[in-house]
Specification:
This protein is mainly alpha-helical and 93 residues long. The protein contains 2 helices and 2 strands, in the order ββαα.
Length: 93
């Protein structure tokens, strides 16, 4: 999530916003598409093709697998709480 503070409306009451970055073209969409189409599948493929041979690495992998979904579920509320705190301290400090 990107915290955008510099934006302006494209047309009044359109509901769309334009993020002004100083250049006429933003590369955010291209970067996100490359990550989704290329980088993430490679990471998943590398992760799924690994084999654990000893009990220590098997326990570590099982632990990380067990906590991955709960962390996924709580990371957005934590991010929003952090951003709200950051905005309040930035505005008041």
């Amino acid at each position: 999530m990107v915290l955008v503070t510099n934006y302006r409306e494209i047309t009044p009451n359109s509901g769309r916003t334009f993020v002004y970055g100083g250049s006429p073209m933003s590369l955010n969409g291209i970067f996100e598409a490359v990550c989704i189409i290329g980088v993430f599948p490679i990471i998943v493929w590398l992760s799924a093709s690994g084999i654990t041979t000893d009990n220590t690495s098997r326990r570590i992998c099982r632990f990380l697998g067990d906590i991955s979904f709960p962390l996924y579920m709580v990371h957005y509320p934590l991010m929003y709480a952090f951003y709200m705190w950051l905005i309040k301290t930035e505005l008041n400090g």
